[in-house]
Amino acid sequence: MDLLSRVLALIPVSGRLDVRCHFGAPWAIAQGSAAVREIPYHVLLSGEAVLEHGSGPAEQLIAGDIVLFPTGGAHRIHDGSGRPPAPPVERQDVSLLIAENEGSGARADILCGRFLIGAVPDRLLREHLPGRLVVHSAESAGGTANGRSEATGTPASTRLTRLIELMREESVDEGPGSEALINHLSAALFALTLRFASGGSQPPHGLLSLAARPRLQPAVTAMFETPDKPWTLDQLASLCNMSRATFVRQFQDVIGRSATDMLTDIRMTLAGHKLLESNVGVAEIGEMVGYQSNAAFQRVFKRLIGVTPSRYRTLGGKVEAA
Known about the structure:
Radius of gyration: 21 Å
């Protein structure tokens, strides 16, 4: 399995389209920090917009851009005029909420929704993706800049464009099953957006960049396939035919975290699955994911997940992020 498939197999992600916005300038969409296990997303179907997120510079968006926030950070998207936005009015269509305003300026059409992460530890996903990911699906684009991933006429870009168009059509011409279909398309949007981003010439720092480094893949494969082994950095480096120092440096440069950190996140994700899907004892699960000491497993799990393994199982995985 490729890296993206491995991660998505471990961490189930579904999608939900919340609202379609039809705005005329001036307009603005402001969202606070997302709820636990939610990744907000926006698709700019037509028009232009400006994105503000965190302390970084504002970013211009064009039709076809997809924006998602893996860490759920607060953000604001607006027309860029600087004028007070015309307040939106919401109405319920057959299955979709529609937001419109009375702005008379340049028009923008936006889909706003959420990717929902299943009840498993999600650090492997959240901690290894950028806080903000902007993907430009237009086939005529090229290059990458500032966490923005673009491609020129690639199969991924073509599929992404078709998927967005299908979401647009279903949100406009609602038919039987449209709500369920749009939500299924949203889940596909998550996977295809990450694939598209990882396939650029300069993938965003983190997990998506690691997928494009074949020299590091033997170590990544080993961590996923045999997390129960007591891997050392020397052993992982040897799998990649690198010195320990070179391996540590390249891994850190690509993902911004150590291979040990990633291995721990893989182990915690697998442990979370086993705690919810089996009746195997906690100590045995710890051994299955690489901890010979039950006390060490319990300590690491609680530090990263926020509760003990037993408590996690009792709560069905529904815990606040640590």
